[in-house]
From TrEMBL:
Name of the molecule in the record: Glutamine amidotransferase
PROSITE patterns assigned to the protein according to its UniProt record, in alphabetical order: GATASE_TYPE_1
Keywords: Glutamine amidotransferase
Biological classification of the source: Bacteria, Bacillati, Actinomycetota, Actinomycetes, Propionibacteriales
UniProt cross-references to SUPFAM superfamilies, sorted A to Z: Class I glutamine amidotransferase-like
CDD domains reported for this sequence: GATase1_1
Length: 255
């Protein structure tokens, strides 16, 4: 592939096997990164061994969310989840060693967190829908959150969360229900608990698709959809635009 970072595509690692949700996720990430759909290559983890990933072929890598929980007991994980996590572990070894541009969302924060020694458990779940997020002082100064207010609304929904970060990680955002809403290791490896790619259409799709996945009682679907529509969520998408811009200048950041 081209050596110019501006000409390289991005890579989306997905754990979504539900076609409607997977298509929506890809479209949302490409739209808010500000790139064409064919500039965001998608690989579905867990369906087959992850092919060799040459980090130099990509502008940056994103890991999305889905039905896996990184903190699940090993004996309860499906073969697909175990395969995905083995592949992710090897990839994250390379990513963190190189301080390579990487952004994990929702499941991604648990995956990166465990890889880095964080405590990930079921102590701080959040219901599906809007959440209020507050940047830390470090988050307010971080270029990934440039142009964002200290407090903003986002969409989320998770069964697990990080209850303690390792000392070398930088906490960037928090919420009343979940103490770690975003963190960074190194200069370029980021993770968010909330979904930076979700607008109203996106969260409504997720509510519909995952109504029977244990996040909420299916009878609550209509009420959750109404609650999601009652707020305006616009700021989290700035994170993806900033991430794309940083990926295009990754060489300068590392130097």
């Amino acid at each position: 592939m081209a050596s110019d970072p501006a000409a390289k595509p991005f890579l989306l690692l997905s754990i979504r096997t539900e076609e409607r949700a997977a298509l929506e996720e890809h479209a949302a990430f490409s739209r808010f990164l500000g790139i064409a759909a064919d500039e965001l290559h998608r690989i579905e983890l867990g369906t087959a061994p992850l092919p060799s990933i040459d980090l130099d072929d990509w502008a940056g890598i994103i890991l999305g969310g889905g039905a896996f929980n990184a903190s699940d007991p090993e004996e309860s994980k499906s073969p697909a989840q175990l395969l995905a996590e083995r592949d992710l572990g090897r990839l994250l070894d390379d990513v963190t060693a190189r301080d390579y541009p990487f952004l994990g969302a929702c499941y991604g924060i648990g995956s990166i967190g465990l890889h880095q020694g964080a405590v990930v458990d079921r102590s701080f779940p959040e219901g599906v829908g809007p959440v209020s997020v507050e940047l830390t002082d470090e988050g307010l100064a971080d270029p990934l959150f440039a142009g964002m207010p200290r407090e903003f609304r986002a969409y989320g929904g998770h069964k697990e969360a990080i209850s303690r970060l390792p000392e070398h990680a930088v906490a960037l955002a928090t919420s009343e229900a979940a103490p770690v809403q975003a963190f960074r290791v190194g200069k370029q490896v980021y993770a968010t608990q909330f979904h930076p790619e979700l607008d109203l259409d996106g969260i409504l799709t997720r509510i519909a698709v995952y109504a029977h996945h244990g996040y909420f009682d299916p009878s609550e679907q209509e009420a959750l959809s109404a609650a999601a529509a009652a707020v305006t969520v616009t700021h989290p998408m700035t994170i993806l635009r900033n991430f794309a811009a940083r990926c295009r200048h990754a060489d300068a950041i590392q130097s």
